[in-house]
Amino acid sequence: MFSITIAADEKSLVRSLNYLDTDLKKRILDALRNSAKGVAGGARRKLRAGKRARKAFSEEVPQSQTGELARSIGYGRIKRQLAYTVTAEFYGRFLEFGTAERFVAFKSGRASRGSLSARPFFLPSSGEAAAFEKAIADAVEASLRTFATR
């Protein structure tokens, strides 16, 4: 299984939330869930929009052959934490980051040397990540305003 975690992992923030309104926790969890949903949806869109050319080149989104990888992408909350995780089939990591060069011997007696270039599709772009961070910050700010006016 290949996964990334979207979390409010700042210890002081998480500790402070225990003393604050449950509405604040809910808003932060909603923002985290929406971010995880956005990452999963973005990865699926990138895969489904990938070119079905004969050969995929480095830095291109991988070709979708069967759609299995796109269907395997999901997200879920990590129990008792302010965090969501986004997962994909185990071989997604090889497509995302590439592989080192390897020597492979076949039963036929032939041998080959090669590697797989990185073809990123999973991790959000810097623009997407900034939007997720802003949504979480906005949720915290809105909740703190509401909490302060009570």
Explain briefly what this protein structure is.
This protein is an alpha+beta fold and 150 residues long. The chain is built from 5 helices and 5 strands.
Key phrases:
5 strands; two-stranded antiparallel ribbon; alpha+beta; three-stranded antiparallel sheet; elongated; 5 helices; 150 residues
Largest sheet composition: 3 strands, antiparallel
Helical percentage: 40-55%
Structural class: alpha+beta
Report the average pLDDT across residues.
75
Helix and strand sequence: EHHHEEHEEH
Low-confidence runs of at least 5 consecutive residues:
none
Number of helices: 5
Q: Rg, please?
A: 20 Å
Number of domains: 1
Question: Beta-sheet strand percentage?
Answer: 15-25%
The shape, in one word, is elongated
Beta strands, count: 5
Descriptive account of the structure:
The protein has 150 residues and is of the alpha+beta class. It has one domain (2-148). It is 46% helix and 16% strand. It has five helices and five strands; from the N terminus they run βαααββαββα. The chain has helices spanning 11-17, 22-49, 68-72, 92-97, 126-148, and strands spanning 2-7, 74-77, 83-88, 102-105, 111-114. Strands 1-3-2 form a three-stranded antiparallel beta sheet. The protein has a two-stranded antiparallel sheet with strand order 4-5. It is elongated, with a radius of gyration of 20 Å. The N and C termini lie far apart (45 Å).
Topology at a glance:
Elements: E1 2-7, H1 11-17, H2 22-49, H3 68-72, E2 74-77, E3 83-88, H4 92-97, E4 102-105, E5 111-114, H5 126-148
Antiparallel strand pairs: 1-3, 2-3, 4-5
Helix pairs in contact: 2-5
